[in-house]
UniProtKB/TrEMBL annotation:
Membrane topology: Multi-pass membrane protein
Species in which this protein is naturally found: Bacillus spongiae
Subcellular locations according to the entry: Cell membrane
Keywords assigned: Cell membrane, Cell projection, Cilium, Flagellum, Membrane, Transmembrane, Transmembrane helix, Transport
Residue segments, region Disordered: 253-273
Keyword rRNA-binding: no
Primary localisation category: membrane
Transmembrane segments: 12-32, 38-58, 154-174, 186-206
InterPro entries: Flag_MotA_CS, MotA-like, MotA_ExbB_proton_chnl
Residues annotated as domain MotA/TolQ/ExbB proton channel: 106-220
Lineage of origin: Bacteria, Bacillati, Bacillota, Bacilli, Bacillales
Name of the protein: Flagellar motor protein MotP
Pfam families: MotA_ExbB
Amino acid sequence: MKKLDVFTPVGLVIGLAFIAFAIITNGGVTGFQSFIDIPAVIVVFGGLISAILVSFSLKELKRMIPVIKKSFQKEEFDLKGLVHTFVTLSERARREGLLALEAEVEDVDDPFIKKGVLLAVDGIEPDVIVDIMNAEILALEDRHRQGRSILEKAGEYAPAWGMIGTLIGLVLMLKSLNDPTTLGPNMAIALLTTLYGTLLANLVFIPMASKLQAKTEKEIFVKQIIIEGVIGVQSGQNPKILEEKLSVFLPKSQRRDEESNEMDGQEAIMNEA
């Protein structure tokens, strides 16, 4: 299930708020005017856009909007529910055989689970199932990396174009030392381009790319659990043993809850006896 990842917009807002607070503290509300310079904006954003266009094809650039959108989304993974799903599949497979799972997985939403279980039902060797499912994980990781690479490159190019703007401003300033009225605007270009470029890289592009990488790693982790579950079901493992095996992937808090519930159940049985 995908929800709004509030930490992405909140982080952006907090970062900008601290910068605004620093400006207001030292220069008041009118101090913002000193940090807005159209030539500096043109140098950084124009240079950044041109560098991105040179680096990537149109097909790759079309992925940028969905990639940025994904950094504002949060996908929930119910690991405890995932373990329960495989325990249920294992119990039915032991009672009725693997062929009975073909109807069981119709109610499962995750296509990766469906694919693994159907491969097991078809009698594919475990090693082959692992290879097929790992190949899909590698393909997923490669797709995510390609989409993320645009943000990573933007994070590299933004400070570089900030430095180019700084060099332009310094050259203009040095060539017009005889005219004091031009020193201020040229110095503004020199300093503000570096500020814009660094701000874009370290507040927007690099953090978003890092978040997307973390999301990819989490998704791969969940798929590795699914592979373990599929192989466990196919090999006919005892549901309790499979549950114990998959439970090691759960957070400690959830494992403690399960252990506590199991102990309570055992205690209730002893009391009844």
